[in-house]
Amino acid sequence: MAREMGGDIKVTSGPVIERPGDLAAILTNLHEQDTLFIDEIHRLSHVVEEILYPAMEDFHIDILIGQGPSARSMKLEIPKFTLIGATTRAGLLTSPLRDRFGMSFRFDFYTPDELGVIIRRSAKILSIEIDESGAAEMACRSRGTPRI
Predict the structure, then answer these.
(1) Which of 37, 53, 70, 114 has its CA 20 to 30 A from that of 104?
(2) Backbone phi, then psi, for 62, in 5-degree steps?
């Protein structure tokens, strides 16, 4: 996707972005046409989500400088980027965040046969011997999702 958009991809996850400043740092380091992929996006805090909304809509973030009565807000333009959010718990996304995405896709879980192919391929890449029954057992216990 990033290559098609003419940029690079930056990958992070919702639990890693604990504070608004964490997200601001990521967003200000993007370049024009980059893709930002946030795995487990449903785990972003509401405070962090608030920073994301203007970034998604208008490609700017609001930065608070200072504290107390002398604090002031500054609008900081950021490069145009593509945001991809992934979650297995779509019901936990807040409506304001979900509504800001232009597209939403739902992927089916892998079948045990498909997982078996993934497991055997991964074992080969990692130079690990695995027999058919072991791969089949792992595939059945994977609950439709390949994980390390």
Answers:
(1) 114
(2) -100, 120
Any bridge partners for residue 75, and if so which?
62
Task: Identify any residues that bridge with 61 across adjacent strands, giving them in sequence order.
Answer: 76
Q: Look at residue 117 and tell me whether its pLDDT is greater than 80.
A: yes
Q: What confidence score (pLDDT) does residue 132 get?
A: 93
Q: Contacts from 21-24 at CB under 8 Å and sequence distance 24+?
A: 22/48, 23/48, 23/51, 23/52, 24/51, 24/61, 24/63, 24/76
List the alpha helices (DSSP H) in 59-148: 95-100, 112-125, 132-141
What is the Cα–Cα distance from 58 to 95, expressed in whole angstroms?
19
Ranges 12-16, 25-29, 86-90: which has the least confidence: 86-90
Burial readout 84-115 (b: 16 or more C-beta within 10 A, e: otherwise) = bbebeeeeebeeebbebeeeeeeeeebebeeb
> Quick check: pTM over 0.85?
no
